Amino acid sequence: MNPALFDGTTADDEYYLPTQLDPAVYEARIKTHRAEYINERDFATIRSWGLNSVRIPVPYFIFGDRAPFIGCIDELDKAFNWAEKYGLTILIDLHTAPMSQNGFDNGGISGVCKWAQLPDEVEFVLSVLERLAKRYGHRQALMGIEIINEPNTTTSWPMMNVTERYKAVDPELAEGTGPIGFDWLKNFYIAAYHRLRDADKGALPADKAVVFHDGFDIEQWKDFMRGPDGKLAPEFKNVVLDTHQYLMTAETMGCPQTAEGYDDFVRNTYAPMIAEMSEYFPVIVGEWCLFNSVGCGVDTHGGQSVLNGEEGAQVETLTAEQKRSL
Q: Is the Cβ–Cβ distance between 151 and 101 less than 8 Å?
């Protein structure tokens, strides 16, 4: 989100940034970025726009127990204080996992997706969720906790083309990289739910939501957490489904690259998806973006740019005035 953080390095993600900077420089950069990038004024602005909640992505090393990464629990504490001051709620989103749950640059390490294959790291993520629940479960501002952001599943893996789109710096480290199966993911979500709610572990109150991401296939979840009668099983309370809707992803799903095509796709594909799944779970769109090839003036092939390997994307075919008219 802030390329300047990576100036003077070849790092594309947080995993490699500390390997290319002196420890003192790395710490100074990270702390300056966190102090300046989001501040109290942003919360006041959000409130002034009539919004009522913020989704805050946090890394698996938030508690500062995974060297060389620097924890950021103090920043989340500040965010809760600001949210409560301005009458906002917070959805804590665990955005990364060790060895990544998706292989994206925003998943912590590009081109590597092995977390679900590493039992110790799966357990570590569960422990992070528990600690977040204990620390914030009874805060007025807490809306809920999202178990893990954007796991790259067997549905999304071919579309995301991780191994080509996000080249691994260390091919040996990336060996074994692959998608997450839905059976595994469903079992993990159930385990995470119980760990969050367990009085001896997370103790997340029932009025705080447990949120799970759809793994880029929203229809996979119709039978999830259901009892024999087809209704949500009684042991599961206040569970919310998160789906992410990007026009660049719509393009990979066959959406025509025209203003009319985007409008039609949102109205007749994305909206019906949410309407249908709302019969099973409350649904939120935790991420969405209008970024698209028409607006760029060049086919981005699903949102790629010169920042992640799309050569020639800097040559645009539309003027700034033409973009505005669209």
A: yes
* CB-CB contact of 300 with 306 (8 Å): no
pLDDT category of residue 309 using cuts at 50, 70 and 90: very low
pLDDT band at 219 (very low <50, low <70, confident <90, very high): very high
- Between CA 98 and CA 66 the distance in angstroms is 9
Q: Is 130 helix (H, G, I), strand (E, B) or coil?
A: helix
Q: Which two tokens stand for residue 169?
A: 């710096």
Q: Which of 137, 305, 277, 309 is nearest to 212 (CA)?
A: 277
Longest dimension (CA), the chain: 59
Q: Does the bond joining 234 to the residue before it have cis omega, within 30 degrees of 0?
A: no
The mean pLDDT of the chain is 92
pLDDT score of 306 more than 60: no
Q: 3-class DSSP state for residue 122?
A: helix
**Structure token pair of residue 90:** 């917070």
Beginning with the edge strand found earlier in the chain, give each strand of the sheet holding 142-146 in spatial order.
53-58, 89-94, 142-146, 209-213, 239-246, 283-289
**Residue 243 bridge partners (DSSP):** 285
Q: Looking up tokens 């952001």, which residue turns up?
A: 149
Q: Report the alpha-carbon distance of residue 326 to residue 310 in Å, rounded.
A: 23
Tens digit of pLDDT for each residue in 41-59?
Answer: 999 999 999 999 999 999 9
Is the distance from CB of 95 to CB of 59 less than 8 angstroms?
yes
Which runs of E-coded beta strand occur in 130-246? 142-146, 209-213, 239-246
The helix (run of H) or strand (run of E) holding residue 287 is strand 283-289
Q: Phi and psi at residue 262, in whole multiples of 5°?
A: -65, -45
Q: What is the pTM of this model?
A: 0.92
